[in-house]
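Hi R.,

Here's the input for the LQZAQKY5 complex you asked about:
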Amino acid sequence: MPLFGRKKKEPEVVVAEPEAPQLPPPPPTDERGWRSMEDHRDYLLDQVHQLPAFGQQILDALDLSICEDIESDVDLPGFDNSAMDGYAVHFGDTLGAAEDAPVTLAVMGEIAAGDWSDEPLPPGTAIKIMTGAPIPPGADAVVPYEATDRGTEDVRVFAGAREGQHIRRRGEDVSAGDVMMRSGARVGARDVGLLAAIGVDKVMVRPRPRVVVLATGSELVEPGLALSNPAQLYDSNSYLLAAAARAEGAQVFRVGLVGDDAEAIKQAISDQLVRADLIITTGGVSQGDYDVVKAVMPELGLTDFCEVAMQPGKPQGFGLIGEDRVPMIMLPGNPVSAYISFEAFVRPVIRKMMGVEPLFRPQVRAIATHLLRSVPGKKQFARGLVTTDPAGRRSVTAVGGHGSHLVSSMARANALIVMDPDVDHVPAGSHVPVWMLDEVS
Ligand SMILES: Nc1nc2c(c(=O)[nH]1)N[C@H]1C(S)=C(S)[C@@H](COP(=O)(O)OP(=O)(O)OC[C@H]3O[C@@H](n4cnc5c(N)ncnc54)[C@H](O)[C@@H]3O)O[C@H]1N2
Ligand code: MOO
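And here is the predicted structure with LQZAQKY5 in place:
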């Protein structure tokens, strides 16, 4: 065979199939195939991100998380000024003044709040001064009107003044360069006042997440309308979740109801993607023949349906939906399950998006007023009513039963009693962990 006539073999080019996008590997499960509440929560938190900060007018920044340290450019007060309506004087001129031995001083004029003059106050004289007006050079005390005869040409002073009395000093409240707010703090009403006082009109904050809330279920009816048969019921979940999300600071769009119809659900979710940072649905995530959410959502994005070792709230769904991978949390339909799932999963997600700490409800301890029973193998969330005695000791009483449909006892509760999967009961008089639902954090 001619040496040079042999054709070199072309190396075979192997083109790798592009990998289909996937959610990160889910957390481990137990022998029943269930995950822990904490693992599922952390799995969701890992897949959502803080929203980018933007400049917001201070009043509209209320309740949002600030993303910059705010240093004051100014002193507060910005100048020495009077704390009283009265007369600025040299305190030495008033020594020994008394009701029966007044000191008389010539009045040089008047200074109102907002007036400014470099003119020093001559010794032996006084000048009328209003609250907030600048102290003239040389003056070192203010005598309030009540200790004078309120004279306009001359004034009689009936009490000796102390050096510096009723003078508010420049910088005694804030010095230029002081840090007023730290990045990560939540802007409260008093912060808004302080920001305005130092002349700041806009701050960098994380926005309110736009949260779309949608209920699924053909049996549901909008409150205010008539039920057309006894098997129908009012949609309470979308209101409950919308209210809970709004209370956390989200900008909520409550879309309302969609029936158990695959096309209608796909259409409704697709329509909402454009305005959502987070979508929350309820219903249709369990094993039922009409649990359509679970069936159709994989067509719209990356999804994860699972069972969590908790009660209520066992069936859960999560997705990153559409081209923009909008996070979607699909909660169970039972109203108590939906709410407890909100507390366990949605609230921390909203807080992460807003950059608000702490992400989780602080777990505090309360004394059980009676025997509490739990279902071992699941983290149990019972509805509780916590009372606090004058010494600050909390006691908790369960309200209602464990049923996930008991909405009235949920409304009466102010706490969730948390019993870990290894707990089957808590004796009366023992401490039990609770999440306080109405405390602002
Ligand atoms: N065979 C099984 N059945 C069920 C299981 C299971 O593991 N195997 N899990 C149960 C658990 S736990 C829960 S929680 C529910 C969750 O079911 P879905 O998410 O599919 O919810 P639905 O079936 O749509 O509704 C359940 C229940 O809640 C009422 N509901 C629904 N939406 C609303 C609303 N917006 N407002 C008020 N009430 C609502 C609905 O009428 C049903 O009564 O599944 C169990 N079944
Ligand atoms: O988890 Mo279901 O939420 O037990 O009623």
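One thing worth noting: The CA atoms of residues 68 and 183 lie 4 Å apart.

Cheers,
M.
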